[in-house]
Automatic annotation (TrEMBL):
SUPFAM superfamilies: 6-phosphogluconate dehydrogenase C-terminal domain-like, ACT-like, NAD(P)-binding Rossmann-fold domains. Belongs to the prephenate/arogenate dehydrogenase family. This is Prephenate dehydrogenase. It comes from Brevibacillus agri. The gene is tyrA. InterPro entries: 6-PGluconate_DH-like_C_sf, ACT-like_dom_sf, ACT_dom, NAD(P)-bd_dom_sf, PDH_C, PDH_N, Preph/Arog_dehydrog, Prephen_DH. Residues 6-294 form the Prephenate/arogenate dehydrogenase domain. The keyword Nucleotide-binding does not apply.
Amino acid sequence: MEMKKITIAVIGVGLIGGSIALSMRRDPNIRVVGYDVRQEPLDKALTLGVIHAGTTDLQTAVREANVIFLAAPVEQIVATLQHLQDMELQPDVIVTDVGSTKAGIVRQAVEVIPERVTFIGGHPMAGSHKSGVEAASDRLLENAYYVLTPAPGTPPEKVERLTELLSLTRAKVVQMDADTHDQVVGAVSHFPHVLASALVNLVAGYDEENGWHARLAAGGFRDITRIASSNPRMWRDVLLQNREPLLKIAKDWTKALEDVIELVEEGDPEGIERFFQTARDFRDGLPERKAGALPPLNDLYIDIPDHPGEIGRITTLLGAKQINITNLQIRETREDIYGALRITFHSQEEMEKGEELLRFFDYNVYRRS
Ligand SMILES: NC(=O)C1=CN([C@@H]2O[C@H](COP(=O)(O)OP(=O)(O)OC[C@H]3O[C@@H](n4cnc5c(N)ncnc54)[C@H](O)[C@@H]3O)[C@@H](O)[C@H]2O)C=CC1
Ligand SMILES: O=C(O)C(=O)Cc1ccc(O)cc1
């Protein structure tokens, strides 16, 4: 029996958009079209085999789509919702997003999305401090929660259809209302990013006076501040979108810190120990997320002009430097003059040597990190 082909449009082909695209590609009946405001991520995504086709024209990307994932930074998600108003879309289309905040986006969608279009807010609760399509992985969302925030009037069969599609990400799909989402995620994700960066900035100031701070910064400091390496532009937008819940959490935080300070001022050993014990009990009881263990990848992806002599040239260059490869694959030919070659190297070290060599000979070389 011929299976129905589905077209998915991914608007914003970065870390999350790329990871969703890769998950969707697990189903051979799904065609993924990527849209981005920049050509560069589209070129990379084609070379890395993340999307089937890419365009910088929004109408072209969404015209055939049965499901549209808005995966740009949150402020741009709101802007894209507005553009969709005037576009030609499939009659049964589902529009969803992956933004880290929900209430503002859902409110905007209600205002601007035409009635014939179903919008369902979404937020995969997994990510990375890395950004860009080169960090995308079809396993990024595995075992993570994926929150959907359907409005009360959303047809349940549409929510079911989206949930079924999202099973390709292997995430655990749950539903809650957008305000509850913003309060909870504000506390467990947004506010920790503020704290991590505030702590780093504080220590950076101390470090200007005394350079031992950066040098002695050990495991604890690094663990609690890992997320301070996240994308500043993205977090700027998240804070601006989730202002009210965050301001309330910040007030509660100030009070929590004042309580500890008081215990220290009073020199209260039991109180201080209880403070640490209470935190440890909750922290140790957190459910563990068993993400799929990622095997190390020794693959490089190379843009090559579409003629056979080029592959021979590349293998000769690598062979001359005794760089061993274990596999070579030509990815499906792209719609322009380039093809994409995937080379698997024997080891990480050989991959790095190969990368340097091929870049020296002016090839566009990408890794999927
Ligand atoms: N980074 C993370 O860990 C997580 C991020 N999110 C959400 O996912 C969304 C995307 O974040 P990332 O993938 O991390 O960012 P990213 O920086 O890796 O990718 C964003 C992509 O969107 C493109 N873009 C910018 N403006 C656009 C527009 N107007 N239309 C279409 N594309 C546009 C950029 O060129 C870029 O390729 C954000 O809304 C973020 O809140 C959700 C869960 C986790
Ligand atoms: O890397 C981390 O610890 C994160 O916090 C990942 C993350 C970032 C943004 C989200 O909206 C959801 C998850």
